[in-house]
Design goal:
CATH architecture: 3-Layer(aba) Sandwich
Bound molecules: hypoxanthine
Number of domains: 1
Structural class: alpha/beta
Distance between the termini: 13 Å
CATH superfamily: Nucleoside phosphorylase domain
Largest sheet: 11 strands, mixed
Shape: globular
CATH class: Alpha Beta
Order of helices and strands: EEEEHEEEHEEHEHEH
């Protein structure tokens, strides 16, 4: 069964992927961020989707998360690996670290965050105690170990609204809340995947320390530089995972 990969900032393509075709699809929720790229890596069929479009142009609060998840579901994807650039908050989440988080706190607002809104026969509440797919997390951790990449097992992902970065006080609040990393795209993506019945996990790459943790101003140039190192690790994990 095909694996869906949602690429974030720093991962608009996947090296090593043999591209078979690209298809601009549409869904009942509108158009996804980019055409779906169908390909093969090793023995596995892959459907790649650039979350921010290709070229990168859709900010986190404008991504049509419902269309992205629906598009992957419609083409038969059952497992989704979401790659995301994040800021680091706790010690184990320093720049260029890769985390496979196991929890989320949602601080976003005003986003279309459910498939269960209109024309319902009944009200639907999904179980979201453990927001990420345990089996896929375990497989990614195994792939990381085999690839010789140190990936952190677990962590709390804070989903913020963006597109601005946080204030130093906001990062202190997130730390007090128990968050390890902060990003702008983890929600509602994860919840929609659960609503759609997809097995979803995240490879979160730390691009920078959260605001106020280091003295330096956070620049896009610094973020992009750190991401290159982190994304090389993510590619190694993905290649291992897909070869299996
Ligand atoms: N905050 C939120 N999202 C991010 C950050 C950050 O510091 N770095 C990369 N994505």
């Amino acid at each position: 069964m095909a694996v869906g990969i949602i690429g974030g900032t720093g991962l608009t393509r996947l090296d090593g992927l043999t591209i078979e075709r690209e298809e601009a699809v549409t869904t009942r929720w509108g158009e996804p961020s980019a055409p779906l790229v169908f390909g093969r890596l090793g023995d596995t069929e892959v459907v790649f989707l650039a979350r921010h479009g290709n070229p990168h142009r859709i900010p986190p609060h404008k991504v049509n998360y419902r269309a992205n998840i629906q598009a992957l579901k419609d083409v038969g994807v059952e497992r989704v690996i979401a790659v995301a650039a994040v800021g680091g908050i706790t010690e184990r989440a320093g720049p260029s670290a890769v985390l496979i988080p196991d929890q989320i706190i949602d601080y976003t607002y005003g986003r279309a965050m459910t498939f269960f809104e209109d024309d319902l026969d009944e009200v639907v509440h999904i179980d979201f105690s453990w927001p990420y797919c345990a089996e896929l997390r375990a497989d990614l951790l195994t792939a990381a170990a085999r690839a010789g990449v140190d990936a952190v097992d677990g962590g709390v992902y804070a989903a913020t609204q963006g597109p601005r970065l946080e204030t130093a006080a906001e990062i202190r609040r997130l730390a007090n809340d128990g968050c390890d990393i902060v990003g702008m795209t983890g929600m509602p993506e994860a919840a929609l995947a659960r609503e759609a019945g997809l097995c979803y996990a995240s490879l979160s790459v730390v691009a920078n320390w959260g605001a106020g943790i280091s003295d330096a101003e956070i620049t896009m140039a610094d973020i992009e530089r750190e991401l290159e190192t982190g994304m090389a690790r993510v590619r190694a994990i993905l290649e291992r995972f897909l070869m299996a």
